[in-house]
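Sequence only, no structure available. Ideas?
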Amino acid sequence: MRSKRTHLSVVFFLISVSVVVWFALNGIGTSNSSAPVNFGLGAIAGFAAYRYRGYPLLIAISSTLFFLGVLELAFQFYETSLAPAAKIYSYTGEPALGWMAEHGLVGYAFMGPARLWATATKADEVLYDSAFYSIDSLSRRTCDPTVDSPKHALFFGGSFAFGEGLSNSQMIACQFQTASGNEYQGYNYGMMGWGASQTYNQLEVGELFSDIQQRSGIAVFCFIGDHIYRTTWNIGTAAEYPEYPFFGLSDGGELVGPFKARDRRNLQIATNAYGFMRGYSPMFRTMVKPSIFRIESDEDAVEVTARVLGAARIKYRNRFDGEFVVLLWPRSRLDPVLEERFVQELVALNVPVIRVRKLPGNPLDAQLH
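Reply:
I predicted one. Tokens follow.
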């Protein structure tokens, strides 16, 4: 009887090990290892329960792990078959240096000089195809041709300033240059996903403006509502881009920054754990949103963003003879009450604001970026 039980134990143990190895390898290959790990550990706990004659705690652990494994499989199926499709970017061109790269000053950037053709898809829908991006050695998009203008126009911000999906001639910097009758030479310092922190950091580095001969001109920050969540701490962005800079408020209400996740031990631990869980668990990716880890309230985020832009204005005016203005797009995706508060904060800091309340023509036809 004992030998039969021992034989069954060995067989069950070998089955458990096989399940663990197979599921673990499968999980590593798909970056969704939570389900296989749960099933594997559940099998081990089940074997232990069998070996120790139905020990209740081991049975409970085994059952819980198997249940979590089933849930993870369900969420994995949801991600692959039912969830809204994600936006996917692809680039062709030369040189290899032109792809998106980690950047210590701004988090990430296209590294030039480069000539790129960008395509974006969402499921079967092509959002844009072969949009031409010409990137110079300072990671700026350039206006062609360069003109001998008496003034400069510097554009900062995210995808609206960068001109995501638009050719160089269609981006706002070049459109402004053309509309001004070439009175202004346009320079595009924007990038998809950037915000006020990058503008502040850029204006600290003189080499980024060393080739601008025009002393007088204007700087425009193209604001959208997402910028208040890019300027203040965002664990999702920090996990994906470790060099991304953020600002915040001290306990005494002073502006703090720029800082990165690694600069604060508690943020680094939280970011590493968040990044691991996002790669490990489909259920975590679906159920846990980055916004629940935010430090600042919406009101504080508005104040921080306005103060960073106020500091950026001072840096610009110390470098050039001109004005730094904030351009608010219509449908900026910011709550109207927060937007009014943001404008009031900027006015209090003497930052000029241009509000485009309505686009000409049919807004649905307008290409915002």
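The CA atoms of residues 67 and 188 lie 52 Å apart.
Hope that gets you unstuck.
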